[in-house]
Predict the structure.
Amino acid sequence: MVGGAVGDALGYPVEFMSYDQILHKYGSGGITRYELNKEGVAEISDDTQMSLFTANGVLFCFTRYATRGVLGASPADYIRDSYIEWLQTQTGCIDYTQCHYNWIRGVKELHANRAPGMTCMAALQQLAKHEAVVNKSKGCGGIMRVAPLALFAAHPVHDVDLPSHVELYVKESGKTAELTHKHPLGYIPAAFLSALIQKLMPYSYLSKTQLRKCVVDSMSLIEEIYPNQRTYTDYLKQLIDKAIELSYSSESNYAAICQLGEGWVAEETLAIAMYCLMKYPDNFEKAIIASVNHSGDSDSTGAVVGNIMGALLGYDAIPDYYKEKLELRWLIEELATDIAMGIPVGEYMDCYDTPEKRLWMKKYVDIMAYDCAPIKNSYLVHSDLHIYAGEYPGDKDEHRCRMKVLDCCWSKFKHFYDLTCNGELTPYANYLPPQKCYTRFPISDCGVPDNTAIVARLLQEIIYKGENANLHDEYIYIHCWGGVGRTGKLSHVSMLTY
């Protein structure tokens, strides 16, 4: 997973550049080191964003399977719902009052718009509305995101009691790509990638001869899985064979890759990946550099090559200078670690008896409810501190105010911080149950407090209560009238202070 993100980040700045433009800007060797943003970070693209949501969906799926004893839905179905949540991060249309499945949705950096593919966006918008996706796209938007499912399947710690283990995951990888890309050459290459990664994972080095056998075996499995798509599997096989033969030639990487395509469509992305793998089977850096220096979809070809080389050579084979500046490295490594460690909880065990299990349940089970905002115009400020903020929890009408406050959505909240001024709205504190704690800290609308020391003490109090909230599962709500001005200022400062 880190390898895929490295290839993605290296290729992202040159995705829409010609080879001549790349050489003009970066020199005769092309781009070989990250182009950093103003914060000194190598940005990932939508390829890695969607891969992370794939990983989250896979882990959520199999945690439910482990704790409930039934799969309920296929992995591709869970991943579909994950992609819809990714779509929400890109459009900003998120209903925070609804339960969701991906804890990573709260990572703000994943909300950045990094040139998402239009095919993916359009297809997911249809899926979100429960409409059938109809297109003939064979773009690389399917293959570039499926590796986490294959990595989960390939790891030996996973004792998944399901029939036809390898074949199942290969099919699910194809279905995952097919969610958005309906042309057979849009999803069959993704299935092939899954088969190959599962074959490569047990090894740390393979000769070209051994690698070629893995490729041949993977292709044979694909032909068995898709017997009615022989025209397309035959074409894919021919393209892969061509890539392998080119890897033995003396042609330059660019000249060889030009004969395979530009990577905008999935079969070309896969062919370029096969060339880089076979050309540099023991050198992660050379394979990645070759994969992005061409006139095509450099971030996607880099991501797929990185997935494959990382699966084969391992984490330590990735040079440190590629890992050090990688955006969201902590998140990528956390999800990769979760995929590698296996599901630590089960149906017939105490799933909360260790810190590790409690954290796992928080991420992959309890996430469905614990960070849902209480009302429409509210939001989660800090998940660890259980701090939420938003609009006034009552109403101008006294009867509706009482009913709104007594609604069950407020049951988990213990502390209420009211930033409105006296007489501004109908008071609601007298409707709160006795065990609730209410604090009034009036700030004039569109204004800021004059006494910063008082604000500092208030923030310290909120943070202290938040730090102790985990012990009692108590939640904090900060509000003004609309939940934007005064509340936004205070909740933002609260996070900065923390």
